[in-house]
Amino acid sequence: MANKTKFQAIKGTRDLLPPETELWNRVEQTAREAFGSFGFGEIRLPIFEPTQLFARSIGEETDVVSKEMYTFEDHDLPELEELKTSLVFRGPNIHEAADVFSYAQRIKDFQGLVASGLKEKKIVATPDNAWAKDLINVLRTRLLTDADELKRGDSLAARRVEIHMESMRGALGTFRFGSGVALRPEATASVCRAYIEHGMQQLPQPVKLYYMGPMFRRERPQKGRYRQFYQIGAEVLEAITPNQDATKTLGKDAAVDAEVIEMVMVYFARLGLEGVVLDINSIGHSAPECRRGYVEKLKAELEKVKNKLGADSQRRIETNPLRVLDSKLESEQSIIEKLPRIGDHLCADCAKHYAEVKRQLQLRGVPYQENWRLVRGLDYYMRTTFEITAQGLGSQNAVCGGGRYDGLVELLGGPPTKGIGFAIGEDRVILSLQEAGKDNMAQGLDVYIAWMGEKTLATAIRAARDLRQAGFRVELPPVEQKFGKALGQADKLGARYALILGEDEVASGQWTLKTLADGTQGKYSEEGLMEFLLKTRTVSS
Ligand code: HAM
Questions:
Q1: pLDDT per position as a tens digit, 356-387
Q2: Best mutation site among 64, 65, 186 for ligand 1, i.e. most ligand atoms within 8 A of its Cβ?
């Protein structure tokens, strides 16, 4: 019987369909234009990267890395993988000495390939692999001994082979050829990796890049939260020149931060996004006299109220006390409000930088509100952090998050570099525009060609081609239709006009154009029709 399983998009993923995709295209096109006008160029990044890239930059303890990444193993050794699979699934006949000998030989081949793979560094030398390699070797020797005994007619040898084979399968199964790879949960780490890989510190600084595309996080899906979601982001990276006096560049950094924030706000305004609110904060830098000192104080205060906090916050006192400030739990709000605030514990440089960011935002006419609890969920931030919310989104109302991340490029093995950027949740921007009724931009069909009679087909095809070339949206039915049915179809598709081509029209060269909204119609020559349509397009656009 045929298998009737109906496939569905995987939980947390979805199809984006027309006409909604027009809105997506507009949102993306507007980003290209807005970011381009600030001197940003597009970077296209891979969808998967080494897991370690994200673990090191975003932080092992963050939710994104510790529980939300889609990871898998990848390697370049398909033959070895195939051999391993066959060794696991196709064991020897445990009663046949010759079969056991030949299996042991295949294991030897496997060991040889593994040894050269390790030497060429195509296989990662992990403790688990070393353990599996040793065990496989011991088991192969035992198999050879038992194959000899089988040959001599030892009745218990088959049972021993069976037991060794069980362990052998386990050991083979533990062996990993590849390294961990993850579907990207965000793109800042990738941009930094690319900056290093392409020696972008040699380019005129700063390097300004934007990107857009899908990201993946195993979160609990709900409105505005998906497992495959789309981000539009931008990053500004700037190599720190040797002997640069960091205190002297604080003002410049603040101006860069403010311009990046201004750019997102300009973009949102162009989109017509409503209820946009910008929250900003500074989380200082990781020095004892700045954030580290503050975190110690915060931790001490949290310990005092520990038993009044929920389980998540209690755990975070140890793993990441700053994240307690993020808590939305009603019962914790009054407690959190009384906790020490980072703004009172910034070092002089960070405080100066933060004051300058605010002054720069004012200069640019960008309204903001300060939010001392805005700490963000990724480890790489320092100094400026910001988040933007918009209306119509319920609890998942952050449409953009970003901040400064000086030092991240260096952490990933690159030169000392400063960084600031943001990512916009495109799905949420679209939802907010839809909620505000700003999604009504689907352009309908311009012309439906109602043709009848085989002799008119060539003319209909030519008319469709010319109109399409002139940029009109044209539907040419593949087979002729009675005019009544064709007009009904044109209506259903929301066409503005129906071009009626019958044998009479073709013979006289006078084509009939019906305006579907009011039912009026006129006769036009081929050129006259084009002229009329082009004119009405200019008027209506
Ligand atoms: P993020 O705050 O993790 O930051 O994500 C940025 C935005 O992506 C969020 O504000 C939200 O709009 C959207 N987003 C995140 N997760 C989901 C989801 N599961 N479903 C739908 N939308 C989601 C970053 O990713 C940083 N890389 C931003 C950045 C760039 N910082 C500096 N440069």
A1: 999 999 999 999 999 999 998 888 999 999 99
A2: 186
